[in-house]
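Slide 14.
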Amino acid sequence: MTDRILVLVRHGQSEWNLKNLFTGWRDVDLTETGIEEARKAGQRLKATGLKFGAGFTSALKRAQKTLDLIAEELGQDLPITRDLALNERDYGDLSGLNKDDARAKWGDEQVLIWRRSYDIQPPGGESLRDTGARVWPYYLHVIQPHVMRGEGVIVSAHGNSLRAMIMALEGLSGEEIIKRELETGVPILYRLNADTTIAGKEVLAG
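Slide 15: predicted structure.
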């Protein structure tokens, strides 16, 4: 039987994660902690003995660097495709703001709605549903065919672009997916059936 492997990894801690800033499409780098998280992710994946034939990441360097570090730890020659379809949700006018400052300006309740509702956009930005509208076609038409061919695929992306993908994979509702927390640098390993449904799921935490 062909192994249909898909691994999703949220990038390691970024400089703006550390500073509690809304990041979105701003292109910030990993912290030292983030680099270590990415290396540990690669080590955990190497310990599984899995072979990967394709890697996908966003147009943002925090996700790209995470995947590069994972590939380095794996010691595998991994063809990598970068595409802005996998970028983080665009936070619009919130981008670059401290989350506490945003709460002071707009109020706790309004900021919580922007952060945690499925279909309400922050000013000038994307909702999670908007993010899904670019992630879902990319997953179905570009990523999933590699998985179904048994190539072994790893995706390094962002909290919200991965939530959109997980929503489709696991058949979750908008209400269910907004409650899903993804740790930085922790691989989620899916094994798919021949009909693209999930045969198994494992979170490779430390």
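Speaker note: The radius of gyration is 17 Å.
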